Amino acid sequence: MSQISSPALPAALPRLSPRVVGLLAALVTVLIWTAFIVVARASADPARLPTLTPLDIVFARVLGAGAILLPLGWWLTQSQRARQRAAGQLPTAGSLFGLSPLPLRTTVLTGLFGGLLYGLLAYQGFVFAPAAHASVLMPGSLPLWTALLAVWVLGERISGSRAVGLLCIVAGDLLVGGASLLHALDGSGVWRGDVLFILAAFIWSCYSVLVRKYALQAVHATTAITVFGFLVYVPSYLLLVWAGVLPGQVFTAPLRDVVLQMLMQGVGSVVVSGISFNLMIRAFGPVRSTMLTAVVPGLSALSAALFLSEPLPWNVLTGLALVTVGIVFGVRRAGASKP
Q: I want to staple 205 with a disulfide (CB 3.0 to 4.6 A). Which of 145, 157, 246, 263 is the partner?
C-alpha cells in the first residue's frame, strides 16, 4: 500500500482550531436532532401512508448503527483486553461476546434506557402526535427530567435560578401536552403521542444520568447501547415477524425507504450525532453545549411547519418559547454561578 508523505498533509488539510471544530460539531448535532424529529414524523404519520411501522423503523435504526458500531465495539474490547494481558491481568474487559466495551450490567442498563425503550416509545409517539409536540416534549423536557433524576440518583442540588428555568419548561410542556389531554375524550389520539414523548424524554434522561453516574465515554456508551439493541431486538423482531405476530414490513417495503431509515435514524441519529455531541462537549463544555442545543425545539417545529405543512397553534408556539427560554435561562444562570 503506498504511503503519502506527511509534509504535504498540513498544506492540503489545514488543522482546524478546537473552537471551529466545536462549532461544526454543534451545527451537525443541531441539524441531525432536528432532522430526526421531522423525518420520524414523516415516516410514521398514518396520513402519509407510511411503508414502515414504528417497529420497522427501530429495526432499521439498530441495523444502520450496528453495521458501524459492532465492529468498533469488538475492536475497543480487544484493545482493552490486550492492555490487560500486557499488565499481567486476566482479559475480562467487555461483554456480550466481546462486542460491547462495557461490563454486562452497565451494557444492559444503558442499552435498555438509551437504546430500545427510547426508540420504541419515540417512534410510536410520532404515529399519534405532530412533530411540533415532539419538539417541545422530547428535547424540551430533557433538562427537566435530567435535573430531577440527578437530584435523586446523584445527589445534586438545584439552584434557585435553575429552578426558575425548569418551571418555564414545565409551563411549556403543560401548554402543549395539557391541551391535548383536554381533548382526550373527543376521539383525538394526539394525547397518546404526547404521553409517549414525555416517557421517551424521561427514559433518555435515565440513560443520561447513568452515563454521568458511571462516567462513561461517549463512544463506549453509544457502542454498548447499539450492541445490546442489536443482539436483543434484531432476533426478537425477526422471530416475531416470521411467526406472524408482528406485521413487519421491512422486507416488503421499498428498499430505498429501509436504507433511508438505516442512514438517517441509525448512522445519523446514533453514530454521527453521538460523536458530534461529544466533540461539542469537549470544545465548549456541557453548559454552553446545552445552550447551543436549545435551538432544537423551535427549529424542528418550524421545519415541520415548512416541510410537513403542520400547523403551529398559539399554545405550541408559546410552549416552544417557554421551553427554549427555560433551557437557556436555567443553563446560563447555572453556568454563571460557577467559579
A: 145
